[in-house]
Specification:
The protein is α/β, with parallel strands linked by helices. The protein has one domain: P-loop containing nucleotide triphosphate hydrolases (Rossmann fold), CATH 3.40.50.300. A hairpin with a 2-residue loop joins strand 9 and strand 10. The longest helix is centred in the middle third of the chain and has 18 residues. The radius of gyration is 20 Å and the shape is globular.
């Protein structure tokens, strides 16, 4: 039986005047129904570009240069724009970082929800309104009928993000891609939104790809994790195993920089020296080698491959 989503050797490039640069380099992972996967890494690691690639939202000059993206047994990476419109926002939905930028400020919530449904289904306005109300209730929005007649600026940040989640659920998608869904929210609301996403995945057997820099959030929500660095997956496996027993020095550094993970009270947090390289200046060998405390001579000349290191975990490190 095929996986719900199967990405193999994905490569995304951006065509610049000075030549093409590689933003995503050989990314592979699978996702099954009801599974929750965390894509983790610093800004610039390639997490969002990977998410956009799945639904073919890579803006020019970006393009998929290599690899396959298969959804429900069909290779969608070769789909035309018209074919992708039947998938994007319908079978695969995306929750973007900033709800205020996602919602149109000049239309009511009800108008935007009904329009979204009618774009994907032949459905009457009254039936679409009923589905919109049902989804607002599902994401625990109080007074849902009143919300339909309100504009985005009349709602709080947390309420707007719940609206975005409700919109993403309108067509009962098989996968939701959540790109830093709690970035602009305070800590209490962040926890509520993550609990809500987890609840929805379990109740609807829906798969989730959670894109975030926060390993603490991922450790509480997802079953699998893919740690990205400079366009590559450098560690991949079960969340529990990766968080408790990280193999790659970068993953180890990320975890030890977060209070409440493996750091005990009274211990100092670990700081990873340096910064992630820009796409135009990736060092030879392992891209992490200038920041790595374990690096050897081979790390500066040969790029490590993602390999099985036991316990269901794969890592790209010469020294492990």
């Amino acid at each position: 039986m095929s996986h719900l989503l199967d990405i193999q050797d994905l490569e995304v490039k951006f065509a610049l005047r000075t030549g093409d640069i590689t933003a995503i380099d050989g990314v592979s992972f699978v996702l099954d129904r009801g599974e929750k996967l965390g894509l983790v890494g610093e800004s610039g690691a390639g997490k969002s570009v990977t998410g956009f690639s799945i639904i073919n939202l890579i803006s020019k000059p970006g393009y998929i240069s290599k690899g396959k993206i298969c959804f429900e047994g069909n290779e969608i990476s070769s789909y035309s724009d018209e074919q992708m419109r039947k998938i994007r926002g319908n079978r695969i939905s995306m929750i973007f970082q900033d709800p205020m930028m996602t919602l149109n400020p000049v239309f009511t919530i009800g108008f935007q929800m009904i329009e979204t449904l009618q774009a994907h289904q032949k459905i009457s306005k009254s039936d679409a309104r009923e589905i919109a109300l049902e989804k607002l209730k599902k994401v625990h929005i109080p007074s849902p009928e009143q919300r339909l007649s309100q504009y985005p600026h009349e709602l709080s940040g947390g309420m707007r993000q719940r609206i975005i989640i409700a919109i993403s659920l309108l067509t009962d998608p098989a996968i939701i891609i959540a790109d830093e869904p709690t970035t602009a929210l305070d800590v209490t609301i962040q926890a509520e939104i993550m609990d809500l996403l987890q609840e929805l995945c379990e109740s609807d057997n829906m798969a989730l790809i959670l894109i975030t820099h926060d390993l603490g959030v991922v450790s509480q929500v997802t079953e699998k994790i893919a740690v990205m660095y400079a366009g590559k997956i450098i560690e991949y496996g079960s969340t529990d195993q990766v968080v408790k027993h990280p193999v790659h020095p970068y993953t180890e550094g990320l975890i030890k920089s977060i209070p409440g993970t493996v750091i005990k009270p009274g211990e100092d947090l670990v700081q990873i020296p340096g910064m992630m390289p820009t796409l135009t200046n990736i060092p030879p060998g392992c891209a992490f080698n200038p920041r790595c405390y374990l690096k050897g001579a081979i790390c500066t000349t040969q790029t490590p491959e993602l390999k099985d290191v036991g316990n269901g975990v794969s890592a790209a490190c010469h020294m492990k």
